[in-house]
Structures are given as C-alpha cells and as structure tokens.
Automatic annotation (TrEMBL):
It is found in: Membrane. This is Major facilitator superfamily (MFS) profile domain-containing protein. The chain crosses the membrane at residues 20-40, 112-131, 137-158, 170-191, 197-220, 284-308, 320-342. GO terms for molecular function: monosaccharide transmembrane transporter activity; symporter activity. It comes from the Eukaryota. It is a multi-pass membrane protein. Residues 27-367 form the Major facilitator superfamily (MFS) profile domain. It comes from Gossypium tomentosum. Gene3D superfamilies: MFS general substrate transporter like domains.
C-alpha cells in the first residue's frame, strides 16, 4: 500500500491516546461511506442479471436457454458476453489497484477517494442509460476503476485518522458500509424486479452512494500522515489538531509521524528488495496467504451472485432475491459483532474464530 510504511501508524503512534472526538467520528464515517459504492455493486449485479427485461434487451440467448432448461438452470448463465459484463468491473478494479497505491501516495488519500467517487459516478450513469452491451461493459470498467481507487485509499485513511486504541473498530466501518450497500442493493433489486425499466433504476441508483461519498470526501481534510509525506507539515498539524481535539497537544504525535515518514521514505528507495528480507518474510507470506485463502472459500462468489445461485438450486425469482437480502443482513450483523470485539480481543482472535467457523460450516456441507 502507499504508505506502506507509514506502517509505523500502528507502531510508535499507538502510544498516543487520542480521544474519540466528534470530528474524527464524522470524518471516518464520511471516509468509510466509500464502502457503499463497492457494496452496492456487489449486491446489484447478481440481482440485475436475473431480471427478464434486462436479459431480454442485452442477453436474449440466456432467456432462450432458460426456456429450454428442465432440471438445472445453472448452465443457463453460461454466456461469455454476460460473464464479460459481470467480471469487467473486477478486472478493472484489479488493474486500478496496481497503480492506486502510488496514486494514493502522490495525491493523497482524500483526493484518491474523490477520484474514485467521480469515476464510479460516471460508470453508474452510463450503466443506467445503457443502450447496448458495449455501454454496459464500459460503464462497468469505470465502476471497477472507482472501486479499485477507493478500496485502496479508504482503509489507509481510516487507519491514519482513527485513535490508535480504537483503530480496529473504525476500520471495520468500511466493511460495515460495504454490508449496508449490499443489503440496500438487494432490497432495490427486489423492489424493481417486476418493472420493465427496473434494471435501469437498479444500475443507475449507484450514482447515489457515489455522490454521497464524493461530496463527503470533498468536505474532509486529508490525513496527517499523507500531508507530511507530501511535505505539507503545517496542514498536517491543523488536520491532526482537528481530529484529536483543539485542546489536545499534538506536537509529540506530529514529531512521531515525521519520524515514521522519514523511515518510510528510506524504505521506498528499494521496496522490493526490502520486502523480501528475511525479517519481513512472515509478513509477506501472511499478507498474501490470508486474502488468497479467503477467496478460495468462495464467499465472494456467493456475495456477487447470490440471487443467481439461489435460483440455480430451485428458488423462484422473488425467493432468490429475498434469500440474498437475508444473507446480506446476516453479514451485516456479523460485522457489528466484530466491530465490538476487534479492539478488545485483537485481530488474531477474529482470524481464528472466523477460520474455525468457516472450516466447520464447509465441512458440514460434505456430511
């Protein structure tokens, strides 16, 4: 990540007992709201691809297969064009993430979120007014760039602004807003599924979370760490005083951030050499292994295509959308639980608990 190094944020700065001020809460809520755009798109695409008017306009071959399906409708969705529509966002997000860390370091966390919000806004507008498959895919690519930029900048922003003692809880705010976006999207899909223009409303309403996040990001300041990294020390002092409280002496923390910035700048000279050093190998392995094996559980596929999967096992269209809503609500409840315990019991506890729970549940499916 961009501030890779500011990696000291969890280190030396953790000795400063920053208070939870109204300013830091509002700032973090605004930043975390960028999760809405990702969550909304996770929930919206699967439901839209089950709507007959949408399929009739863009993917008639899928409807023809559905009419011929007798036992299992899963293969009905075996369409390369339809797959291009759904996957283009995530491919674009992957491409954006490759440059997002440098962009976040160069222009700041806040500006990257604004850029991501504007890109997502444009993509949502194009999707809502799409007249052909090319417009759909182009809009999805723009959505992917928006997701890639905001998913890079927001967690870093939250980590650098949140009081060290409550950093875990504030960081889960991003995931919480993703959950809200998923549930909202599934509810909208359920409400619009019966209308011939419902798919346009579902896709087009993505402009709402994008506008909320973009406008909100324009109203907040960048993080002290980011400002120091770009040589704006006085602005960093003002930003730190704003989030820690006007009566709080921020000079010691500011000095620590400067020191961390100097260390980070030294490390950036040969980052790929540094990361492969023996002392950092455990961190490198875990940073790759944790998300890799989480993806292999298939949970993201379930989240993205829940309505389609529920239909494939025999649910009706309405029942599939309701089941997706229930799934989203369960996920939202689990995020609230993790928010309450992450700073009390630690991240390792949640990894162990979540891993055991997934192992038991997936093992149970084979019984």
């Amino acid at each position: 990540m961009a501030v890779g190094g500011f990696g000291g944020v969890d280190g030396p700065v953790s000795s400063f007992n920053g208070k939870i001020t109204a300013s830091v809460v509002i700032t973090c809520i605004v930043a975390a709201s960028s999760g809405l755009i990702f969550g909304y798109d996770i929930g919206i695409s699967g439901g839209v691809t089950t709507m007959q008017p949408f399929l009739q306009k863009f993917f008639p071959s899928v409807l023809r297969k559905a009419a011929e399906a007798k036992t299992n409708i899963y293969c009905v969705y075996d369409s390369q064009v339809l797959t291009s529509f759904t996957s283009s966002l995530y491919i674009a997000g992957l491409a954006a993430s490759l440059v997002a860390s440098r962009l976040t370091a160069a222009i700041g966390r806040r500006n990257t979120m604004v850029l991501g919000g504007l890109t997502f806004l444009a993509g949502a507008a194009i999707n809502g007014g799409a007249a052909n498959v090319a417009m759909l895919i182009f809009g999805r690519i723009l959505l992917g760039f928006g997701v890639g930029f905001t998913n890079q900048a927001t967690p870093v922003y939250l980590s650098e602004v949140a009081p060290p003692r409550w950093r875990g809880a504030f960081n889960t705010g991003f995931q919480f807003f993703i959950g809200i976006g998923v549930v909202a999207a599934n509810c909208i899909n359920y409400g619009t599924a019966k209308r011939s223009w419902g798919w346009r409303l579902s896709l087009g309403l993505a402009v709402v979370p994008a506008a909320i996040m973009t406008i909100g990001a324009l109203l907040i300041s960048d993080t002290p760490s980011s400002l120091i990294e770009r040589g704006k020390v006085e602005q960093a002092r003002h930003s730190l005083r704003k989030v820690r409280g006007k009566d709080c002496d921020v000079e010691a923390e500011l000095a620590e951030l400067k020191k961390a910035s100097d260390v980070a700048n030294e490390a950036k000279r040969e980052p790929f050499v540094t990361i492969f050093q023996r002392q950092y190998r455990p961190h490198l392995v875990m940073s790759i292994a944790i998300p890799f094996f989480q993806q292999l559980t298939g949970i993201n596929i379930i989240a993205f295509y829940a309505p389609v999967l529920f239909q494939s096992v025999g649910f009706g269209n309405d029942s599939a959308l309701i089941a997706a809503i229930i799934l989203g609500l369960v996920n939202l409840a689990s995020i609230l639980v993790s928010t309450g315990v992450v700073d009390r019991f630690g991240r390792r506890f949640l990894f162990l608990e979540g891993g055991i729970q997934m192992f038991v549940c997936q093992g149970w499916q084979f019984c």
